[in-house]
Prior knowledge:
By secondary structure, the chain is an alpha/beta fold. It is built from ten helices and seven strands. Helix 1 packs parallel to helix 7 (148-163), helix 5 (95-107) crosses helix 7 and helix 8 (180-196) runs parallel beside helix 10 (224-255).
Amino acid sequence: xxxxxxxxxxxxxxxxxxxxxxxxxxxxxxxxxxxxxxxxxxxxxxxxxxxxxxxxxxxxxxxxxxxxxxxxxxxxxxxxxxxxxxxxxxxxxxxxxxxxxxxxxxxxxxxxxxxxxxxxxxxxxxxxxxxxxxxxxxxxxxxxxxxxxxxxxxxxxxxxxxxxxxxxxxxxxxxxxxxxxxxxxxxxxxxxxxxxxxxxxxxxxxxxxxxxxxxxxxxxxxxxxxxxxxxxxxxxxxxxxxxxxxxxxxxxxxxxxxxx
Length: 260
């Protein structure tokens, strides 16, 4: 058993495809200890591996039990998931609250687990009585039903946040901010081209217009790559304007070859 993370116990799961989908979300969020109690169609079933989309290790290591009590025997903290009110005098927690308790137990060296009921009927009152707390997803009361993999995914996600709440790395984050000289060089290039285009009008307002432009662009905290890109944009626009002016000049010469 992976004692550094909770076990996922599926009590009387019905469809192999759902078991495979559960394995997939377990792998997404760093869980691997999968326990199956009386799977309806026996075990193993190839359809589970097909539904796991490559997340095979929870299935490869899955253990099968005849009794829920046996599946829980080595655990110190057990949470039972349910969408229905229960008579059991147990604390009722959201997945986030339950994840915090599971994390505290695991970090303290204790084995923990989450029980999920079968697709059709969920957990019985006797099953729930084996747990230390109930976990209920705060879904809309107009439609409480979650499929098995959804329920596991929500709880597994909350567990994962106890390990790391940061967004994953490797998404090609922004470069470091550009140096002051790079940014000022871009500002000066842009201002030269705006001067040439007659943008700063009336002339007496030029200082305040330049200042406002620099403040607005400075708020972007541009990276070196972004500065290079913007300088390329300004260069392309200025070359385009030059070609247009040259073409117009040529047209005027053609219309008035004598220059009169």
